[in-house]
Design goal:
6-stranded mixed beta sheet; Cytidine Deaminase, domain 2; alpha+beta; 164 residues
Length: 164
């Protein structure tokens, strides 16, 4: 498998739709609730109908109870428009205590959620990841999660079919 990654020196090199999505993610990042890590993440999701939903990370003193920006945005979008495919997502982060030299990429749980929505809607999601200075973009979650966990791997021959 050959992974396909696009790299950009700045947001100015992005197409207008990608740049708009990134700007929405940056705005969402500004209201992240990250009092413990001080690692603020913003995400913006565009659905195939053109609507954009944003999210930011929400931490909790009981760490497993928090949620990543990507999943906040994805779950919000799909809870309102469950039959509309996710077209793209932009992710950005800032941190007071860390030197971020690479574009921020989604955690494994967020990658798996993206894989689920890609599979559900049978469309590839464009993922735009921003960092200090430059950006990366991929088309299709298999470029971030090449050996993803999928329903087909769980099916027994002649077994029940999943809904959806």
């Amino acid at each position: 498998m050959v992974l396909q990654v696009e790299e950009y020196a700045s947001a100015d090199e992005l197409q207008d739709g990608d740049r708009e999505l990134l700007e929405k993610a940056i705005t969402a990042r500004s209201s992240a609730y990250a009092p413990y890590s001080h690692f603020e993440v913003g995400a913006a999701v565009r659905l195939a109908n053109g609507l954009i939903f944003t999210g930011n990370n929400q931490e909790n003193v009981a760490y497993p109870s928090g949620l990543c920006a990507e999943r906040v945005a994805l779950f919000h979008a799909q809870s309102v428009w469950p039959e509309i495919p996710v077209e793209s997502i932009a992710i950005t982060a800032s941190a007071e205590e860390f030197a971020m030299t690479e574009p921020v990429s989604p955690c494994g749980s967020c990658r798996q959620v993206m894989a689920e929505y890609e599979n559900r809607h049978r469309n590839k999601i464009r993922v735009i990841m921003a960092g200090n200075g430059y950006l990366r973009a991929i088309n299709g979650i298999e470029n971030l999660l090449p050996f993803m966990f999928m329903l087909e791997a769980l099916k027994k021959p002649g077994g029940r079919k999943a809904k959806g």
